[in-house]
Amino acid sequence: MGEVIVLAEHRGGEAREITLEALAAGRKIAERTGLKVAALVLGSVVERVAEQLSEYCDTVLLTEDERLAQYHSENYQRVISHIVRERRPRVLIMGHTSLGMDLAPRLAVELGFPLITDCIDVEFADGRIYATRQMYGGKLNARVSARRAEGYIVTVRAGAFRPGKAAGRGVVARVAPPDLVGEARMRVKGVVAPAESGVSIESADVIVAVGRGIGEKINIPLAEELARLLGGVVACSRPIVDKGWLPPDRQVGSSGKTVKPKLYIALGISGAFQHIMGMMNSQLIIAVNKDPNAPIFNVAHYGVVDDLFKITPALIKKIKEVKGMK
Amino acid sequence: MARVVAVPGLWLALDIIVCVKYVPDVSSAELKVDSSGRDIDRRGLSYDINEWDDYALEAALMLREKHGGSVTAVSIGGEEADRILRRCLAKGADKAVRIGDPRINLYDPFTVAKVLSAAARKMPFDLILTGVQANDDGYAITGPAIAQHLNLPHATLAKKIEILDGRAVVNRELEGGVEEVVELDLPAVITVQTGIVELRYVSVLGIRMAMRREVRVMSLDDLGLSLEEVGEPWILVEELYAPRVERRVEYVRGSPEEVASKIIEVLRGRGLL
Ligand SMILES: Cc1cc2nc3c(=O)[nH]c(=O)nc-3n(C[C@H](O)[C@H](O)[C@H](O)COP(=O)(O)OP(=O)(O)OC[C@H]3O[C@@H](n4cnc5c(N)ncnc54)[C@H](O)[C@@H]3O)c2cc1C
Ligand SMILES: Nc1ncnc2c1ncn2[C@@H]1O[C@H](COP(=O)(O)O)[C@@H](O)[C@H]1O
User: Is A69 in CB contact (< 8 Å) with chain B?
Assistant: First the structure.
């Protein structure tokens, strides 16, 4: 017998959605293998999270310590590797989040557990982990295998697994943390909220979003004109903010804003997963991209495979005609 | 290796290693799976420095401008990777090292991290910068894995790096654009997020000048790393295939005018115009 351990992420006394999804991935492995699923909750006062998660797994491992109140890579690594050495799980699962990306690779090297990141599906067969993940900008899927080892780590992509409660209620077991003494070589200083420049893309009904395909900063007014005619605002993908062409609060995606407008027009955006996450729930998505295989067409309702510099001016012209403008 | 003595207020020259990967441009290319079924068909693709690594290099150059010291660009790869290393030199890197050894499995980030760690042990450094992830495989494993091999503190997803009194103060990007500030003792490993600084352009002249500069080529033997120590890859692509997604998309075809008319019909139908 063995175990799948899922590292819980929580905020304000509540487990984050990604953790419920990671538990679903754990249960998928468990169904086929008979492994048990445990959630590992680290924090300072986090019994509520443990109670909540007991509905989703067989066991909740609860480790409370003041020094675990916030994520601290060294402390978290020490506690998790200690617990893994004691319980010897076959699989450790985390979210592919800023926390999982920070922690998983180090743990993998320390424990000698092969790690597959950003998985959209996982399978445990003949004692090994196989995972499905996207590669090459989301254009291709890969089935990735891990070398045979005592244990494995996977991080899962947000939205890839559907959360669901377990049949019974799991037991909560307190686990004492190991010694956290030893000098910390990293210190957490605080958190900075993102700067806001004024335009709220989250409350807009219509968004015209530009990506790297817009080419130059001087082309952004083209999108602005279209947005104005439709009573909307201009937003963008990450590279546009990185280049300083639009302010950070116009960025749509996992590290930007999540929007749900009535209309989202994507101009020259490839549709990387981090972008899709921020706009996939828009009511109507129209994408213009000259690459027929761009992943943006996986979420678009209407797709135009063409040059945005041909389509956008034509659209502007037609809207003006319809509105009786010259 | 550990060279920094953190004396408050003391001026500190920084030796920085930047890891750069030579990657195909995938965003506008038509990708095909090759006959092995495990890799892409690389014919006709254009290559460049990984976008995240370009930002890492730029961040390193700015730190060097401020604090003095040196920037060394390191890449594992074949001769073709010299092109991006020369671009790093043209941008202002002091040295370029290519670890060229066909026995290295470039597809396994754990192998890559091990080899880069061995390379770092051969040169003095205060800081190692990598990209958050490579745009081709997207694993986001190499940087923190190097930190573990070298037993150094690390921070991922850096949007800002400052050096103060022998420590690195790093803004890490969390979800939704929130940033967490952490402080690391040096030497340390930091993975760099895009947008950390503005990229500067390299002049054609600069690139031409850099053509004459040396790229030092090293093998596993030069690193004192045996094949046994490198070991088997930890993870492997078994199969690569076009995603089988059910697209709900309705393609709008025709001349730009026809496309525009059809879109306007859709918008009117929904009361959006
Ligand atoms: C931790 C992390 C967080 C991230 N967070 C975000 C985020 O919040 N938001 C975000 O957007 N990204 C985010 N990213 C980056 C993301 O992975 C992609 O790199 C980014 O979304 C790509 O932006 P793009 O589609 O504009 O550019 P590209 O991928 O370069 O795509 C450009 C597209 O334009 C098309 N094109 C070019 N010219 C034309 C033309 N004339 N007409 C029509 N089409 C044209 C091309 O075919 C291509 O599909 C994040 C990445 C990481 C690692
Ligand atoms: N072949 C390589 N040579 C040098 N650096 C690399 C190589 N592969 C990956 N890296 C570094 O590791 C980072 C993350 O890559 P990955 O873990 O593959 O997503 C990249 O941004 C580079 O900085």
Answer: no
Angle at B122 between CA B117 and CA B123, to 5 degrees: 100
- Contact map slice: A 181-200 vs B, CB within 8 A: 185-194
Q: What is the CATH number assigned to the segment(s) A3-174? A: 3.40.50.620
How many Cα atoms sit within 13 Å of A7 on the Cβ side? 27
**Beta-sheet strands, E only, within A87-139:** 91-95, 115-125, 128-135
Protein residue whose Cα sits closest to atom 51 of ligand 1 = A274
- Three-class DSSP category at B44: coil
Q: Confirm or reject: Cβ of B81 under 6 Å from ligand 2.
A: no
Cβ–Cβ below 8 Å for B267 and A239: no
> According to CATH, what is the number of the domain B14-230?
3.40.50.620
Q: Which two tokens stand for residue B37?
A: 């079924």
Chain-chain contact of B183 with A187 (C-beta, under 8 angstroms): yes
What CATH number should be reported for the domain whose range is A206-323? 3.40.50.1220
For the record, the structure tokens of B188 come out as 């340390």
- The pTM assigned to this predicted structure is 0.96
Distance (Å, whole) CA A287 – CA A52: 40
The DSSP code for A36 is E
- A244, two tokens: 């300083």
pLDDT tens, A185-224? 999 999 998 888 778 899 999 999 999 999 999 999 999 9
Please, what is the Cα angle at B71 between B207 and B223, to 5 degrees? Answer: 105
For residues A158 and A17, is the Cβ–Cβ distance under 8 A? yes
Ligand nearest, relative to CA of residue B21: 2
Domain ranges of chain A: 3-174, 206-323
Nearest to A191 among B180, B184, B256 (CB): B180
Of A238, A256, A302, which is closest to B194 when you measure between CB atoms?
A238
CB pairs under 8 A between A and B: 262
pLDDT (tens digit, 9 = 90+) per residue, A41-74? 999 999 999 999 999 999 999 999 999 999 999 9
Shortest CA distance from B182: residue in chain A: A188
Q: Give the type of residue at A245.
A: W
Cα(B65)–Cα(A134) distance, integer angstroms: 38
Ligand sitting nearest the alpha carbon of B177: 1
d(CA B134, CA B22): 9
